[in-house]
Amino acid sequence: MFSDDSQNNLLKIIESSIRDNLKADSLVFGNCDDKEISEKENIIVLTLSSHTFRLILFWHFNFDSPTNDYIRSQLNKDEKQLSDKEIEKQNMDFISELSNAYCGQLKRVLGHQFLHLGMSTPNPLNKDNFIFIDELECNFKNTRRIRINSNVNFYLSYCLCFQDNTDFIINPPKEDESESGELEFF
User: Fewer CB within 10 Å, N or C, the chain?
Assistant: First the structure.
């Protein structure tokens, strides 16, 4: 069982992690439908897992003009000398690092409650792979629109898998857990 309180707590933790890692004048989260995410060509997938659960996050996006302009403003780079293929690679790298940063923060927050969390690296997928999400047999799934500066839309789908015979509880985040991604040296 995954209670409404735990669903809301997970949503708060995810949105806080994204908010802390996205630079924007305005950032609005909202509900969306399957049609909106089906129009997105690119997906970055990340996984958080422990021995008790698996949380799979899918970051949906297009490299449309508003998205490219947003990324260019964040990178503060002049792309005049870059080919289209180099710009697309640069933009994919940016979104992969961004998704890695918010997922890392999510891992740190959930790590206070769940020991031995593992996190995957960002993996790009083609949108056609997303139709297999139901094969994951998720106990819970949701998709949120993330609107940046009123013209850039990203979408985050996430699904949670855990043993059906347990009550899966996620506590609300503590106030001091909203720190941004810190650099870790190995």
Answer: C
Mapped onto helix, strand or coil, the DSSP state of residue 71 is helix
The DSSP code for 116 is S
Domain that holds residue 62: 4-163
Under 8 Å between Cβ of 69 and 94: no
pTM: 0.85
Tokens encoding 167: 């009550």
Q: Using one digit for the tens of pLDDT, what is the confidence trace for 12-53?
A: 999 999 999 888 888 999 998 888 888 888 999 999 998 888
Residue 103: name the closest of 154, 54, 48, 156 by CA. Answer: 48
Is 21 within a domain?
Answer: yes
Residue the block writes with tokens 């970055």? 44
Distance CA 184, CA 170 (A): 26
For residue range 94-145, what is the model confidence (pLDDT) as tens digits? 999 999 999 999 999 988 888 889 999 999 988 888 878 778 888 888 999 9
Task: Report the alpha-carbon distance of residue 128 to residue 181 in Å, rounded.
Answer: 31
Q: Is residue 100 part of a domain?
A: yes
Residue 121, domain CATH: 3.40.1550.10
Q: How many CB atoms lie within 10 A of CB 111?
A: 15
**Count of domains for the chain:** 1
Residue whose structure tokens are 């260019």:
72
